[in-house]
Amino acid sequence: MRNLLCLNGKWDFMPLYDQPQCRRLPEKIVYEARKIQVPSSWRRTYPLPEGKRFGKFQEYDYAPFELYGYPEEWDAAEAGVLHRSFRVPESMAGQRIVLRLDGIMQKAVIYLDRQEIGVWEDGYLPLRLDITSLVVQGREHHLHVVCGGFDRVVLPNGMQKITGLLGSWYGRICRGLWQDVYLEGYPALSLEDVTIRTSVWEGRIEVNAVAFAAGDAARSPLRVKLSIREKGVLRQSEECRKALGFSDRASAGSEGAGAEQADTGLRPDRPECYGVDLESAPVLSAECMAHSVDGAAVETLRLCENEVAGAVYCASFNMDWSGARLWSPDEPFLYSAVLELLHGEEIIDRRVEDFGFREIWCEGPQFILNGIPVNLRGDSWHFQGGAQQTEAYIRNWYRICRSVGVNSIRLHAEPYPADYVRIADEEGMLIVDETAIYGSSKSMLADHPAFVENCRQHVRRLVQRDKNHPSVILWSLQNEMRWVDGRDGFKLHMPGFMAAIRELDPTRPIIAEGDNRLLPKVHTEVESRHYNIDGTIGQWDRTVPLTFGEHGGWWYICPQNSSMYVGLQAYRGTDESTAGLAQKERLFVEYARRQGVSGISTFNFAHYFMRAMPEQNIVLPSSEPGMSGVKPKFIPAYSLSINNGLLPEDYPLYTPNPAFGIMAEAFKPATIIAAEYNRCFYDDAPVSRSFDVYNDTFSTQDVRVEFVVLQGKSIVHEQSFGFRQSPAEHKVVGVEWVPFRPAAGEQAVLTAVLFHGERRVHELRLEYRIMSASLLNQPVNVQRQTVYWGADEDYEHIRRLVPGCEKVDRSGLAGLAADHLLVIGSKAEDLDGGLEALLKAFVARGGKLLLLEQTQLSLGRLPLSRRPFLRAHAGNYQHPVLEGLGDEDLMFWHEELREEGPLPIVHAAFEKPAAGDFTLLLECSAGDFGDGGDLWSPLLEYRSGEGLFLANQLELMANIGRVPQACLLLRNLLAYAGRAGDNAGAEARPVAALLRPGGKAAAFLDKLRLRYTALDTTAPAVANAPGEAAPGDGQDFGLIVAEACMLEAPGAAEALRRHAEAGGQVLLLPAEDSQQAELARLLGRPVRVVPHETYHLAADYARAAVRGFSPVDLFGFDKVFLSPREVMNRALALNSLELPDDCALCTSVEGTPWKDYFVHGYTAEYSRLALVELNRRNTRPAGTFLAEVKTGAGSVFCSQLLTDPGSDKALRLYTRLLANLGASFDDGLLDSVKGDGEWAMEVAMALPCPPHVDYRAMKAYYTDPEFSLNNLGEGLYGWMQKKERRSGDGTLRIADAGLDPWFLSCFVQVPGQLRRGRLRVNTAVPYEIYLNGVLVAEPEQELTLRGGLNRLIAILHGTGDDLTFGLTFLNADGTYMKDLEYRLTLDEVEPK
Questions:
Q1: I need a labelling partner for 1376 at 20 to 30 A (CA). Which of 714, 833, 963, 1282 fits?
Q2: What contacts 499, CB < 8 A, 6 or more positions away?
Q3: Where is the Glycoside hydrolase family 2 catalytic domain (predicted)?
């Protein structure tokens, strides 16, 4: 009755260059010699600024969208003409002929025999055109499709915006017929639409049919017969797998891999794949009359977009059905509804519609599927075109997700090809079906009438296409339209779009992904958040479900955002960084599950948790014309993360990276999660632990949990729990045990096994560190007389550890002898700076100082940044202060977990100093989305002459009684600071330098404040080794620092070599290849200087010279993706040395994609995984950039590290290296006094108001008393830029500010109650200050801060040059407000 002719295959093609919006068929058409394959996109790349191209990396020959080998020049054609001829087959004689195009990108005009028959600008959904009157049986017809770009409008700022629905980035690159094209033959009187609605709640099924009679085909009376037959569940048996063509290929990789087999892509349309008898009697049947209706009443249900005259009929069935087998993810049971249109006994048309009997609704905060609460654990990804359009790719994606507990997929940013929902029906995957109203690209003018109308039609078409699919449980209206141009006008139409959805389908909830802030509460059916930028879980009122449609930071991957969860190992490579992001996301998922969040979709299993494949381009066999589906010629290297069924047999289904296993554990439906996060205990008290037990299956379970605690080989505790647990129910169980007295390094191991009935479904294994409570009282070996100043509570702890410690008052500090150890208690107050002056004087005269955690007090110009830090970490733990500690000990000091992560263990940390003999014993990180990094130190050591101070900012004293790690660290600090002798790693000796006077090297050493004697460049031989008398002042030089160019002087290399041979040390600054001969004379061996730029180094911490080097300083990428910071990426070195491996102190880290991400700016999501593999494949050998060559009794250190005075990292690295070699510095820290440079406002976010923007509206936006800024720094007027306080005058600098007004925002947190004071404003430009929405008339005279959060807005008016601006908060008496905290963004954002 119905016929189908696929028009896929080779088509003619004429590219139209420089005609992006061409809409007319050219008079003269000249086709390319090369045919185009339909379906496909003729474009694979498009140009980007700075000579780059989206979709291609020339240096790697990487082109993931190159599936067909089209000529490169086609990429420049934004429009083109596609053509083929066809004949209506005999089988369609007398039928209604419909042309169906499933996907045309972007806007197209369709011509038949050069007559325009349709205009289409919905790039993702099918177009059907009735061409019956235009075709003749047996005649050759010519079909032309003119494809071009969407219509554009120009904004006042000159930017162009589109009025079509682009969707995600595939919609921008794609042009042409990218989905199938068919000729469809229908009976002249046929069923055009079927709508099936099922209700589990009522036990009913409703089926509505629309029929159409073209021309004189109308008949009466008409009946519709409905027969419902079981189709069943797609079998997973071996027999069916073979019928479907599955291979036995397993995935490779780590835990979580290998659970599923790769799919070859064959359609499961064989009866044996469902295990039902398709000839059996129907389970439900009925007949009813079809009544003639006004066509306007069912206009939205019509088959074709073009108007055709004829009669319209409707038939409706509404029947009880109590015994239906329900469709669910556990059992995706399908039925086939067979509808026959009858005139008398004649069957005029037959239509088969597959469906599942299921119902989805919301009850308060829960989704309910078939009467059972369901928590959504989801995945989502961007559609990438042809390589993802195979049956196998889709099925494999869903099966991977099901294997790790993911039960829902958000088809993100645009409607995916219809196969995605059909296969989801079969596989039992719940689908969030999303439109192409995608605001993240900000490509549209959202309130333009044409865009609004396109949205209205698009929403209708999506629902019409997918309404009968049981897998579709939510309609997603849009994605992140919150900051697009025309937002405020667009959001007024959102309720109307929702009403259009409701008209076609009132059965499913509607969500606006990431955009609930644009909807009035009355229209919010599901609350949607993305990442941590849309408010907190605590703000959820639980009247509707809450979902996180996207979450996780993998697009923003960088070590700076990962280290706070895995420590400085994040700087090793992408695997370590991705694991850090996974640990962060794991904690969020655990918290969200504990809070009952209704849905979590991490971003994502399909891509970011995988390794790219295949390793090389795969050439595919040619295909027969006229076959449905994509038929690529190639699968490009690294274009996939999931096997799409077109790869050779030996390819796995997928290969995971470290994130996969971590997140698979977090997403398990039936699992046990520890409710407390601290894992270190004293041995003198019981250990109490509670555990969250989840049953996110669809059945009530008989649950048994068995706990065993082992310490050593002994069982400390055993306990079992049994209970019945309903679907989506969260239970908490607890255990308590008393630990044994631990042996050295002993751990307690807890194992919890979860059973459902007799089936073991999960095992949890946790390790706990047990430490002796004697640490709190056992005396520390302190070899100096110790005194303490500070609060009594801290003193009691110190006195137990140092029994002879005496407490002194402040007056006793002035004359304290330098042979003492002075301990300053935590959180000391020093409003007038007098205490600080006493402490600096004590260290300056050679005293040893231990400064416990402070909120205001630090020495000299060493500023404290008051903000929370979750953890601390070190590049290595060899320093005596860190003995017995590791990364795992410096996080999770508290039981609780918050939405933003663990409770902090540091509340203020030092901004990393660039100069001075500092050892950063620990570092800490803050920030998100590219902002922040390891910019702070919570524990540092400083030396000046004989003086030393250790400054600790970890919350030791507040936690010592219950956190053994805090006690251990305090003990180590006391022991180290209290040693009788000097604790330095190298003996301090005089330093000489052989430099060009006034040269860059001399300037660099001066910036280091290095103490050295400049040698006579004309007579370098006067430099004497230790113990040798030097002419002149008789000074012995332990170390000579030499510029490589100075080796060219006669005898210089030999003199330096003799110095080393006699026991001295030589540090040679960077050499170039022209100095190889001189370098060889110095070292007494051949050496090559090789061009080798590096941004990333690793140190051999077993070598004394590089101890204290930070992995952060060895990482030159500071301007990471989307970072709002005004920093730059700096190469650490330009040339390497070819020397024996045993000489190497610092070598380059190779094979990572960081340079491509952060220097080359290759940040597109499609390329991230590929760049990881491409860099691995092209790894060059590591180079040596710092080496020690033993020479006689001494050493020559060859450093290729750049001496860049503008780089704090270079300054720290050379300071540490020189200090390790015995150098000393005149850094002046102990003589310095803090000023505005240390106390002024630390940071602000800034954004200009360009001439085309309404200044009054922008001012009203920023000065709103409830103004908020999300964690991306993203707002209605754009992304704000971060401005950081500069040392010196404490001002923020805006370079090239122009004449525009600038808005600066900062959130000022005030501890305690209301605070009165004033501002010191440091700027030369006109300004206004708003505080909490109110203009401060005279801020330098009077200002009132309220306790808690204050919204500060400064409006500056540029004068054409750079703009500098500083704000310093002063008390009424003129002293600094030292306890303020400055925040750039808010977690608790409001709908602004």
A1: 1282
A2: none
A3: 366-540
| 1001 and 1138 assigned to the same domain | yes
Token output for 949: 């101070």
State how many domains the chain has: 7
> How far is 306 from 314, CA to CA, in rounded Å?
20
Q: What is the mean pLDDT of residues 1185-1205?
A: 96
pLDDT for 886 beyond 70: yes
CATH number of 1280's domain? 2.60.120
39: preceding bond cis by omega (within 30 degrees):
yes
pLDDT in the model for residue 269: 56
Q: Where are the alpha helices (DSSP H) in 478-573?
A: 487-490, 494-504, 559-566
Same domain assignment for residues 753 and 845? no
Q: What is the span of the domain harbouring residue 1157?
A: 991-1225
* CA-to-CA dists, residue 825 to 939, 951, 1059, angstroms: 15, 11, 47
Sort residue 192 into left (φ over 0), alpha (ψ -120 to 50) or beta. Answer: alpha
Measured torsion, CA atoms of residues 247, 250, 252, 258, in degrees rounded to the nearest 10: 150
Q: What is the CATH number of the domain that holds 217?
A: 2.60.40.10
Q: In the structure, what pLDDT confidence band is assigned to residue 876 with cuts at 50, 70 and 90?
A: very high
| Torsion angles phi and psi, residue 568, rounded to 5 | -75, 0
Query: For the chain, what percent of residues have pLDDT higher than 70?
Result: 95
The bridge status of strand 1039-1042 relative to strand 991-994 is parallel
What rounded mean pLDDT belongs to the chain?
92
Q: Considering 720, 753, 771, which residue would you say is the last residue of a domain? A: 771
Give yes or no: residues 889 and 1036 share one domain.
no
In this structure, of 5-19, 260-274, 897-911, 1101-1115, the range with the lowest mean pLDDT score is 260-274
Residues 1286 and 1184 in one domain: no
Q: Which of 640, 484, 584, 601 is nearest to 166 (CA)?
A: 484
Cα-only R_g, the chain: 36
The CATH number that applies at residue 1139 is 3.40.50.880
Total Cβ atoms within 10 A of residue 789: 21
Please list the helix, strand and coil fractions of the chain in percent, rounded to the nearest 5, in that order: 20, 35, 45
Eight-state DSSP code of residue 1360? S
Strand (E) or helix (H) holding 583: helix 574-594
Task: Answer yes or no: is 539 within a domain.
Answer: yes
User: CB–CB of 1123/1239 below 8 Å?
Assistant: no
pLDDT reported for residue 239: 54
Tell which residue, 536, 1230, 566, has the closest CA to residue 886: 566
Q: Please check whether residue 556 lies inside any domain of the structure.
A: no
- SS3 assignment, position 888: helix
Beta-bridge partner residues of 618:
635
Q: Work out whether strand 1013-1014 and strand 991-994 pair parallel, antiparallel, or are unpaired.
A: parallel
Phi, psi values for residue 275, rounded to 5°: 70, 25
Residue in 1104, 1095, 1110 with CA at minimum distance from that of residue 875: 1110
Q: Is 1357 left (phi over 0), alpha (psi -120 to 50) or beta?
A: beta
Q: Is the pLDDT of residue 259 over 50?
A: no
Contacts of 519 (CB under 8 A, 6+ apart): 491, 494, 495, 512
Q: Where are the alpha helices (DSSP H) in 1041-1158?
A: 1052-1061, 1076-1083, 1154-1158
Residue 618's nearest CA partner among 639, 589, 593, 601 is 639
Are the C-beta atoms of 268 and 391 separated by less than 8 Å?
A: no
Kindly state whether residues 172 and 194 are assigned to the same domain.
no
Place of tokens 């060493």: 862
pLDDT in tens, 392-421: 999 999 999 999 999 999 999 999 999 999
Q: Is 906 helix (H, G, I), strand (E, B) or coil?
A: strand
**Is 836 inside a domain boundary?**
yes
Q: Give the strand pairing for 599-602 and 747-756.
A: unpaired
CA distance 891 to 910: 18
Nearest to 1241 by CA among 1383, 1386, 1387, 1385: 1383
pLDDT for the residue 669: 96
